[in-house]
Amino acid sequence: MNPRPTGRLVRAATGSDLVLTRSFRASVEDVWASVTEPERTARWFGPWKGDAAPGRTIQVQMSFEDEAPWFDMHIDACEPPHRLAISATDEHGTWRIELLLSEADGSTRLEFVEHLDTEEQIGENGPGWEYYLDRLVAARDGSPEPDFDAYYPAMKPYFIDQIGQDPAG
């Protein structure tokens, strides 16, 4: 399998966003469960534990990273089944992420947005998020799990090239 990158860099008045989308033949409630219920997030990202609610912090495990680290993730907003905003801080900086879901004609569109403080890490982050979102697709439809080696470093140039593109078109 040679996955194709789908993410795009979007510049707005408040900064830059890395935006990736996936579509699912499922209800918005079912896709919401895949991104919020710990036993379902464990299938594609990692489990989480804690008392989840807006303004609270939970612990999330990145099961598919070296040493499967746990880290704190703050829930900035939770508006089921359409919007989840979360943030975390680690040695690489602060991660501010939104998951936006919308349903039409029997399909749910998931828009994954990473609000970037800088564009410096886009060559690493872009392929990583593509990988995790394809893991979500595989977990939902039973297809084979993707191989990270097909994403990184192969997709890195695609994302770095977006830094130089004229946002006006």
UniProtKB/TrEMBL annotation:
Per its UniProt record, what InterPro entries does this chain match?
A: ASHA1/2-like_C, START-like_dom_sf
Which SUPFAM superfamilies does this chain map to? Bet v1-like
**Gene3D superfamilies attached to this UniProt entry:** 3.30.530.20
Q: Where is the Activator of Hsp90 ATPase homologue 1/2-like C-terminal domain?
A: 26-138
Recorded family membership: Belongs to the AHA1 family.
Name of this protein: Uncharacterized protein YndB with AHSA1/START domain
The organism encoding this protein is Actinomadura luteofluorescens
Question: Mind giving the lineage of the organism this protein is from?
Answer: Bacteria, Bacillati, Actinomycetota, Actinomycetes, Streptosporangiales
